[in-house]
Amino acid sequence: MSAPPGSALFSRTPHVARTERSEAIARGVFFVMSVAMIVPLVAIVAYLIYRAAPSLSWEFLVDVPRKGMREGGIWPAFVGTLYLVGSSLAVSAPIGVLAAIYLHEYARDNWFNRIINLAVINLAGVPSIVHALFGLGAFVYAARFGYSIMAASLTLAIMTLPVIIASTREALASVPMPFRVACWNVGASRWQTIQGVVLPNSISGILTGVILQVSRAAGETAPIMFTGAVFFKAVQRGDLFPYGLSEQCMALSMHLYTLSTQVPNVRESIPYATAVVLLGSVLMVNATAIALRVWLRNRKKW
Amino acid sequence: MAVDDGSLKGRGHEPTGRPGDDAGGEGSVPRRSAVPRPRRPLPAVVAERVLEAAIRLSGLSAIFFVLAIFFFIFREAAPVLFSRDFRLSEFLFSTQWYPTSASNVRYGTLALTLGTLSVTGVAIVLAVPFGLGAAVFVSEFCGPKLRETLKIVIELLAAIPSVVWGFIGLTVMSRITIALTGAPVGVNLLNGGIILALMSVPIIVSIGEDALKAVPDSYREAALAMGANRWQTVRRVLVPAARNGLLAAVLLGVGRAVGETMAVLMATGHAVHVPHSLLDSVRTLTANIAAELGEAPAGSDHYRVLFLTGTLLFFITFAVNLCADMAIRGVRRR
């Protein structure tokens, strides 16, 4: 930006020096603010892993809790989380993807669809504990599912619906309009266009959204606390199918909460190790989504 | 809508049936042509109709779910709201919360509301400057490589589950708080505020960055042509132009902080009283529901009052989100 040396006309006046200094200061301050976000992430992850190290092992993952949670592993909680995530995904993925297709491909910009948009935004903003109240009132009592995986995963599904809708819409929006117009002009109907042109070009983006839903659902605690997750359930070591849909289950997030607040004299490293497993799974799932997106963007031809 | 779909489904059988391009408005091809067009097989047409009905139904589902949430929460709360010995003014403006007392049962949520406000306030005071600063840096000051890295970090930061944040508050942050401030208990307002700030920063950054990115490049070019450097461009051109979007970012951060449950449940201590200093323990509206719902027998007054608190929270977040949406909409219109 600065003027070439020797030219009298463009010499560095005090005013220029001042503005340059202010820019350097601003850049520095903003840089520090950005770094202030990264440092906690790295520090926290490192500290958690450091404290968890004595317990972290394959054995910890596949073993069942022993001696009233004070020893042993987290297998029942881990499988329970898989169950909850899987069954909530089965509900929210189809509804979410179809809803996004409606909002992006069918809906015109009128007051009615603005209300739908507002509802989606609001659904994303409702506090998780309010979703828990809803799940308790609607699924556990009104629908008579009782405290069960079904009630908990339906609550999770409704809660994570906006995640899928938002990212699917983004994926659909990244397909250029001329693709659709070209398809319409050879006589295809709206759905044929979506099926033949829009979806194949956005499927990986939609997949990213589904993956993000998985990570979100795996980490939530409040919505499942009162609808189907329990403190303890006896499960065989390494058993892959311990729960039925109408039974209660353990879950990693819930397990971490109870371990760290309600069980006295737990071995120090066990809650840390549970936190690391939960954090690790969630971050790994998210990293997959990010990698998929980056790979996708590099492959894109338009 | 549903009735409309039914009639559409029927039309596939008619002899004059058109290949289904009547579902949407813009972009459909002219319908009359000299040569009669070949028709698609009936099952395909029917399948398409059914699928489009499913798509429309799913589109409506968001409205349905929001109404259902309100309906089911309010249904559980309504009996106590309309019962004779319950006063709404006491519920909203009394600081006495003794839900399980044997002789003197009181359901006043003011201390909890103030707890929510104070924790949110601390979080926002910390998160807004950092969030907006980082948004400006990511959007305007850094190169493409660094930008990608920072955005990935922000996304990962946003993905950390709230219970893990709560655990960090309970174990790591509480020790740091005691060491730095000499507070008697580490789980307090300051601790919860810092944890919540860390949780809302990613939202503020990503929405704020979107808002800055939405400012047309011609604004930047014009500023550059006038001889402004980057900082001057940001301060005099971009921030005023993206004002509404930045406001929305802050509001959504507030919404996140108000609605957060597990982290504040674990990190703010658990005392129901009006906070007087940063080092007091507080309890928030959300944490209160999470802590007491398990012990309140279904159908009891206590249980219903907790649902009423949920209704209150629903309205608070609804208002915040509505404001944020209107702010964003204001950006789009310009």
Structure notes:
The complex is a heterodimer of chains A (302) and B (334). With 302 residues, chain A is mainly α. Chain A has a single domain (71-299), classed as MetI-like fold. In chain A, 71% of the residues lie in helices and 1% in strands. Chain A has eleven helices and two strands. In chain A, β1 (65-66) and β2 (71-72) form a beta hairpin. Chain A is globular. With 334 residues, chain B is mainly alpha-helical. The two termini of chain B are 32 Å apart. The model of chain B is unreliable at 1-27 (pLDDT under 50). Chains A and B meet through α1, α3, α4, α5 and α6 of A and α2, α4, α5, α6 and α7 of B.
Concise summary:
Chain A is an all-alpha fold and 302 residues long. Chain A has helices at residues 14-52, 58-62, 75-106, 111-125, 128-142, 149-173, 177-185, 190-219, 222-225, 252-261, 269-299, and strands at residues 65-66, 71-72.
The greatest inter-chain interface is formed by: A-B, 97 and 95 residues
Find the CATH topology of chain A.
MetI-like fold
In round numbers, the mean pLDDT of chain A is: 86
Question: Strand count, sense and closure of the main sheet of chain A?
Answer: 2 strands, antiparallel
CATH superfamily placement of chain A: MetI-like
Distance between the termini of chain A: 34 Å
| Helix share, percent of chain A | over 70%
Compute the number of structural domains of chain B: 2
Q: How much of the residues of chain B is beta strand, in percent? A: under 5%
Q: Could you give the order of strands across the largest sheet of chain B?
A: 1-2
Strands, helices and their partners?
The complex is a heterodimer of chains A (302) and B (334).
Chain A: H1 14-52, H2 58-62, E1 65-66, E2 71-72, H3 75-106, H4 111-125, H5 128-142, H6 149-173, H7 177-185, H8 190-219, H9 222-225, H10 252-261, H11 269-299
Antiparallel strand pairs in A: 1-2
Helix pairs in contact in A: 1-11, 3-6, 3-8, 3-10, 4-6, 5-6, 6-8, 7-8, 8-11, 10-11
Chain B: H1 2-11, H2 42-81, H3 88-93, E1 97-98, E2 106-107, H4 110-141, H5 144-159, H6 162-181, H7 189-213, H8 217-225, H9 230-241, H10 243-259, H11 262-267, H12 285-292, H13 301-333
Antiparallel strand pairs in B: 1-2
